TrEMBL record:
UniProt protein name: S-adenosylmethionine-dependent methyltransferase
SUPFAM superfamilies hit by this protein: S-adenosyl-L-methionine-dependent methyltransferases
One biological process term in Gene Ontology: methylation
Keyword Repressor in annotation: no
One GO molecular-function entry: metal ion binding
Membership in a protein family: Belongs to the methyltransferase superfamily. Type-7 methyltransferase family.
Pfam families linked: Methyltransf_7
Keyword Acetylation listed: no
Keywords from the UniProt entry: Magnesium, Metal-binding, Methyltransferase, Transferase
UniProt-listed InterPro entries: MeTrfase_7, MeTrfase_capping, SAM-dependent_MTases_sf
């Protein structure tokens, strides 16, 4: 899909890099770590590797370390444990791991920070996961964490001033009307169709897919999305800058963040429409570790910066982005009070699928 947006997380290992600012994603993955190990123990079919004695695993949207390395280590160890627990006479298989992300991802940092004690052979696979990435029936286990919320493109209706879904003055659906939300939802469904069609070709029959992404429980309103206060604050900062003549109104009207949070009901529809996978487990869990203190808004804003800087800078320029970020940081107290009324429970969707 040549029209795919390509805005990888900030590379390198500087103060505003993903590798230094991905603790929240890492903690969210840790919350479901036991669920991943349990899914492999109960559902992963080790006989799939008997013919070649190689297990091939792919992380889609891997960005750079350390989160991808921690997740891959857990998965490899869980599969090895399953082999040993069965007391198989066959030797433990070798592991080949594929790290996938956009071609402009910082693969240099990814590969220079590979764990020296890793128990697998590593390879990079550049390209969008909304298209094919691997040969047919070649992958035993696919994994993706906090990547599928990125749409392949901004829906065109949002930019059409003759459309009911023209998103004038707004940068996201969580702060806009129902029409805008519907357009985002339709784009997400289209993208997921493409994603599952590609994976259905690539995953071996009986193989597994583990997906983790932002999610809202069925029935929770999109206006209660915990991300909404942050979208709102960035939006208000942009509008403040319009009033001051630092940017023009058209620049805000033509900008929308291509991010969408799904629900179990929506995902079930997409999986069933594809028809190639069975849902083995799906649940919405809380991303925050237990006994976590009050929300550190400036720290979360820095995490957003890591993911969003590329897309904002391309549209508005880097100087504008610096000013925008500072202004949004100054709204931290306002964001904190808005967060209290958002849905704090269940903000992550965990999904285990099996290739039929």
């Amino acid at each position: 899909m040549s029209g795919n947006l390509e805005f990888p997380m900030n590379g390198g290992d500087g103060a505003n890099s993903y590798s230094k600012n991905s603790r929240y994603q890492g903690e969210a993955i840790n919350v479901v770590k036991e669920m991943i190990i349990e899914a492999i123990a109960k559902k992963f079919d080790i006989s799939l590797s008997f013919s070649s004695n190689t297990i091939r695993i792919a992380d889609l949207g891997c960005s750079v370390g350390p989160n991808t390395f921690n997740a891959m280590k857990s998965i490899v160890e869980a599969i090895e444990w399953k082999y040993h627990s069965k007391n198989l006479t066959t030797e433990t298989p070798e592991f080949q791991l594929f790290f996938n992300d956009h071609a402009s991802n910082d693969f240099n940092t990814l590969f220079t920070t590979l764990p020296p004690d890793r128990q697998y052979f590593a390879a990079g696979v550049p390209g969008s996961f909304y298209g094919r990435l691997f040969p047919k029936s070649s992958i035993h286990l696919m994994y993706s964490s906090f990547a599928l919320q990125w749409l392949s493109k901004v829906p065109e209706e949002l930019l059409d001033n003759g459309s009911l879904a023209w998103n004038k003055g707004k940068i996201h659906y969580t702060i806009a009307s129902k029409e805008i939300t519907n357009v985002y939802a339709a784009q997400f469904a289209k993208d997921m169709d493409a994603f599952f069609n590609a994976r259905a070709d690539e995953i071996i029959v009986g193989g597994m897919m583990i997906l983790i992404m932002p999610g809202l429980a069925d029935g929770v309103q999109y206006s209660q999305d915990p991300g909404r206060p942050f979208f709102y604050a960035f939006n208000q900062s942009l509008l403040d800058m319009v009033k001051l003549g630092m940017i023009n109104e058209d620049e805000v009207d033509s900008f929308n963040l291509p991010l969408y949070t799904t629900s179990p009901k929506e995902m079930t529809k997409v999986v069933e429409r594809n028809g190639c996978f069975s849902i083995e487990r799906m649940e919405v869990s809380d991303t925050r570790p237990k006994n976590d203190g009050p929300t550190n808004v400036p720290a979360i804003l820095t995490h957003f910066r890591v993911g969003w800087e590329g897309i904002f800078t391309k549209h508005f320029g880097s100087k504008i982005f610096e000013e925008l970020f500072e202004r949004t940081l100054n709204k931290s107290a306002e964001i904190s009070s808005m967060l209290e009324s958002s849905c704090g429970k269940g903000t992550q969707l965990f999904l285990v699928l099996k290739r039929k």
